[in-house]
UniProtKB/TrEMBL annotation:
The gene is Mgf. It comes from the Eukaryota. This is MGF factor. Residues 1-17 form the signal peptide. It is found in: Secreted. It comes from Psophia crepitans (common trumpeter). One of its GO terms (cellular component) is extracellular region. Keywords: Disulfide bond, Glycoprotein, Growth factor, Secreted, Signal. GO terms for biological process: immune response; positive regulation of myeloid cell differentiation. Belongs to the IL-6 superfamily. One of its GO terms (molecular function) is growth factor activity.
Length: 195
């Protein structure tokens, strides 16, 4: 059991060399991490609620069934490779989380069009994504961390959907991608809180 525990934990051991190790005892930094872990969990719950709505309203529930349509839509996952790479750097991870939140804030406009009856929830999600992005930006500035801006990797204006079905599938994948993004961001913040 001890060996198994060590093997499962081993990929994260490399992260102890991250430049934030000296901040691990900083109470303000820990408070920031814990508050934003809760905030991220809340946002994940709101995304899950919207996914549930899309599933029931349009019978779009399984990603595997829609992969061929996805290829035509040009919807990409915001990158977070800096948050789980072997060369983890806190500045790069925070920058990618911040940039990804900004991208999803914009792409939620397509979900807003798709679900006009749930405007309040979608707008709350947009506001929360913007606030979490601002929290991370502010914390980076407070810690004196370099802010890195990553190229937009195909993120630009929202894709134009050629049909109502494509719009529905597009909304489905925006939410699915956002949920995966939030799960990775949550794991990265949780890891930093444990350093």
């Amino acid at each position: 059991v001890l060996l198994l525990g060590t093997m499962l934990w081993a990929p994260w051991r490399v992260l102890h060399g991250a430049p934030l190790a000296e901040l691990s005892g900083d109470q303000d930094f820990q408070l920031f991490l814990h508050k934003n872990l809760e905030f991220t969990r809340k946002i994940k719950g709101d995304v899950a609620a919207l996914q549930h709505i899309v599933c029931h309203a349009f019978q779009l529930c399984e990603e595997q069934e829609l992969l061929l349509v996805r290829q035509d839509l040009g919807i990409v996952q915001a990158p977070l490779e800096q948050c789980h790479s072997r060369t983890f750097q806190a500045e790069a991870c925070f920058s990618q989380i911040r940039d990804g939140l900004r991208a999803y804030h914009s792409s939620l406009a397509a979900v807003l069009e798709l679900l006009p009856g749930h405007t309040g929830l979608v707008e709350t999600l947009q506001l929360d994504a913007a606030n979490l992005s601002s929290n991370i930006q502010q914390q980076m500035e407070d810690l004196g961390l370099a802010t890195v801006t990553y190229p937009a990797e195909g993120r630009g204006p929202l894709p134009s959907f050629s049909s109502r079905f494509h719009q529905q599938v597009g909304g489905f994948f925006i939410l699915a991608n956002f949920q995966r993004f939030l799960e990775t961001a949550y794991r990265a913040l949780r890891h930093l809180a444990r350093l």
